[in-house]
Amino acid sequence: MKWLRRKDDQQTTPSIEQQRSSKLAELGSQLWASRQEKGLSLEEMVALTRIPRRLLQAIEEGNLEDLPEPIYIQGLIRQFADALDFNGAEFASTFPIGSQRVMPQPTWNNTPTIAQLRPIHLYLLYIFLILFSVNGLSNLLNNAALQANNSQIPPSPQKESLLPPEINQPNNSPELQPVSSKKQSQSVQIGVTLKSSSWIRVIADGKTEFEGILPEGSRRTWQATQQLTVKTDNAGGVLMSVNQQEAKEMGEPGKVEEVRIAAKPKS
User: Fold this and answer.
1) What are the tens digits of pLDDT across the range 109-149?
2) Torsional class of 44: left (φ above 0), alpha (ψ -120 to 50), beta (otherwise)
3) What are the chain's domains?
4) Beta strand 219-224 with 186-194: parallel, antiparallel or unpaired?
């Protein structure tokens, strides 16, 4: 009889997307109710949280399609909750961000859920991303300095003596003159200025240099030797300049836009 009762109690586990949608609707409803109780408008919440109005509205309405990746949704919920005097980290930790399905807890199991560990995992991920970005930038600068030093080293006298006499004449063989490699002469630099708080991802030469939300008024610069890719969820809120030229908006406000810029040889 016990085996039959346990089998009857089993239910189909919802997918991770269904869990996110359900939990977002639940948390968004609580945030909306708290905001209404405090008499705050969405515009006032934008000033308190530095989060675009459309993202705050999407959270309250439980609209996953208008929000970025789950890990950033959790961060937005935490900021929103902190501004309404909740414990933001604890409040947001219930929003699922992993790809694994959450198995239902049996009624007889009173052990603590692992959801309490999620904020720690999130902080560790943030630290890893910061260390990875700093390490990548350091390697890029070291490689550039090494290439610059190598280009300044004169050719070895022993190697010159092995060449035929006619090749040792600089005026007779202009094609054999030292030529800087294309990789050393290529470079591209972009700078961004935030008109409003926006999510941005920057990829330099195939490596992610930055991914996150930058507040209004932020100014950042990135450089690559081959190609830079910039993606944002609020194209109208980002002013971008290429190689110190005049800055222009990446696109329309509230639109997702991705721009790829390839390096060109310097004149």
Assistant:
1) 444 444 444 566 676 787 878 887 777 777 777 777 777 76
2) alpha
3) 16-94 (1.10.260.40), 188-262 (no CATH)
4) antiparallel
